[in-house]
Design goal:
The chain is α+β, with helices and mostly antiparallel strands. It has 1 helix and 5 strands; from the N terminus they run βββαββ. The radius of gyration is 13 Å and the shape is globular.
Length: 78
């Protein structure tokens, strides 16, 4: 059984995009600053966890969860 990857998409304190945070990422966090920052962060998390179950939580400025995405790993061993 493979562990579930947990991701957080949090707005940056300087209001210049969002951070994608997870222990599953090789560097711990990624910064997204373009207009579709949240969508791109979620897409990256889903792609990076395509062989694992994943939970992606999107937070607002106050720290409240505003959206949750769950994904079952698509690729399995034979």
């Amino acid at each position: 059984m493979q562990p579930t990857h947990i991701y957080e998409v949090r707005p940056r304190k300087d209001h210049r995009g969002v951070n994608l945070i997870s222990d599953a990422l090789p560097f711990g966090a990624l910064w997204y600053g373009e207009p579709d920052a949240i969508t791109n962060a979620i897409g990256y998390a889903k792609f990076y966890s395509r062989s694992h179950d994943a939970v992606i939580r999107v937070y607002d400025d106050a720290g409240n969860v505003i959206d949750t995405h769950e994904q079952a790993g698509e690729f399995k061993e034979w």
